[in-house]
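Supplementary Methods. Inverse-folding protocol.

Structures were first reduced to a discrete structure-token string of length 238. This string, shown here, constituted the complete conditioning input.
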């Protein structure tokens, strides 16, 4: 089964310059989780609620268009009187939600992982608190998704400047830092979440901007299994 989240994650890097300071990219990937849950169709309750457009993806951005879709990764019941936005090619509508039943947070670590790992872990921990605060449910399903680069070299871009890893100091190559970053994530962030998914990939961010999964079969299996568990848990909680 082809999963939209994996496809759109790959599209962030494949053939494109990846701009790590663009937070909308992670938001866009997070939205694909809900499309995959509906397509998997293992929760009749979730599928029926999505089809009614009374349960939607939260967003404060009302612009039309696919790439303009923005949200904070939360899914719940629409605010009464609000009109949902339905984008072509999407099953899950969006708008303002009154409750939070599922919350998804995406982080992407492409380079300088150890330098930023404490901040990333702190953000992941705090996001769970945000999902639970004032969302009408004391136990939303919390999902963390982290992309972890294993490339042998990587170039980042900030404005007109570029920075290439050289294997030393703060410019260590991604593959040198990925194991320690994963260890800390699993130890300090994963316990906060109902599902914590690490996407292992390789992207140099250099022309012609190739992308590959470390193990596509295993990645698909792990992600698909998480979708199934989320579906089962949704039926149990809601």
């Amino acid at each position: 089964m082809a999963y939209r989240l994996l496809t759109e994650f790959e599209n962030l890097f494949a053939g494109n310059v990846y701009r790590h300071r663009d937070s909308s990219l992670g938001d866009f990937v997070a939205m694909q989780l809900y499309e995959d849950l509906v397509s998997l169709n293992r929760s009749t309750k979730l599928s029926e609620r999505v089809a009614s457009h009374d349960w939607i993806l939260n967003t404060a951005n009302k612009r039309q268009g696919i790439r303009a879709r923005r949200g904070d990764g939360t899914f719940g019941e629409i605010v009464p009187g609000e009109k949902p936005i339905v984008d072509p090619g999407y099953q899950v509508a969006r708008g303002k939600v009154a409750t939070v039943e599922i919350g998804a947070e995406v982080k992407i670590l492409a380079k300088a992982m150890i330098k930023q790992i404490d901040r990333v872990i702190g953000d992941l921990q705090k996001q769970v608190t945000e999902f639970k605060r004032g969302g009408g449910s004391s136990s939303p399903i919390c999902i963390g998704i982290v992309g972890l680069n294993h490339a042998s070299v990587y170039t980042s871009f900030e404005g007109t400047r570029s920075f290439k890893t050289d294997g030393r100091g703060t410019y260590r190559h991604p593959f040198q830092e990925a194991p320690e970053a994963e260890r800390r994530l699993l130890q300090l962030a994963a316990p906060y979440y109902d599902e914590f998914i690490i996407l292992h990939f390789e992207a140099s961010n250099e022309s012609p901007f190739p992308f590959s999964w470390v193990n596509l079969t295993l990645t698909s299996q792990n992600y698909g299994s998480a979708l199934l568990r989320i579906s089962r848990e949704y039926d149990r909680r809601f």
